[in-house]
């Protein structure tokens, strides 16, 4: 990676966030975390990440509401939804998600999902 990409990881389960954040940081990514959608929106307002990993089921503000709020101001932020439930996939696709990562998925699956999104995002940013 030439530039350090910043990832915002949003999930209410510390048992999920901690190992994923550790792994992402070991891969050279900058990682910020939030435990709910409301905190995530504050962080996005402070500094827009390059990519967001966003859980659907969270207290305070769930992932769907968070994504709707983000899309009001930013249609291009790559967002990967984290979920064990696919019922809301059509709504999420309408909101322009870049993909989804299943709860219980492997780090290899996450890497295979992240890498093409990062390449596309890097090309888009460099062409501006």
List the SSEs and their pairings:
Layout: E1 6-10, H1 14-26, E2 30-34, H2 37-46, E3 51-55, H3 63-73, E4 79-83, H4 89-94, E5 99-102, H5 107-126
Parallel strand pairs: 1-2, 1-3, 3-4, 4-5
Helicity level: 40-55%
Q: What's the number of extended β-strand segments?
A: 5
CATH topology: Rossmann fold
Radius of gyration: 13 Å
Overall mean confidence score, pLDDT: 87
Q: In what range is the share of β-strand residues?
A: 15-25%
Overview of this structure, please?
The protein has one domain: Response regulator (Rossmann fold). A 5-stranded parallel sheet has the order 2-1-3-4-5, with helices on both faces. It has 5 helices and 5 strands; from the N terminus they run βαβαβαβαβα. The longest helix is centred in the C-terminal third of the chain and has 20 residues, at 107-126. Helix content is 47%, strand content 19%. With 128 residues, it is of the alpha/beta class. It starts with 5 loop residues before the first strand and ends with a helix. It has helices at residues 14-26, 37-46, 63-73, 89-94, 107-126; strands at residues 6-10, 30-34, 51-55, 79-83, 99-102.
């Amino acid at each position: 990676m030439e530039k350090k990409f910043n990832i915002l990881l949003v999930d209410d389960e510390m048992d999920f966030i901690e190992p994923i954040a550790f792994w992402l940081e070991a891969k050279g990514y900058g990682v910020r975390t939030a435990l709910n959608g409301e905190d995530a929106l504050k962080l996005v307002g402070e500094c827009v990440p390059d990519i967001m990993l966003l859980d659907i089921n969270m207290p305070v503000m769930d992932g769907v509401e968070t994504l709707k709020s983000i899309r009001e101001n930013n249609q291009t932020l790559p967002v990967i939804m984290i979920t064990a439930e696919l019922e809301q996939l059509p709504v999420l696709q309408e909101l322009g998600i870049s993909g989804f990562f299943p709860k219980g998925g492997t780090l290899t699956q996450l890497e295979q999902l992240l890498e093409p999104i990062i390449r596309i995002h890097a090309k888009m940013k460099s062409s501006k």
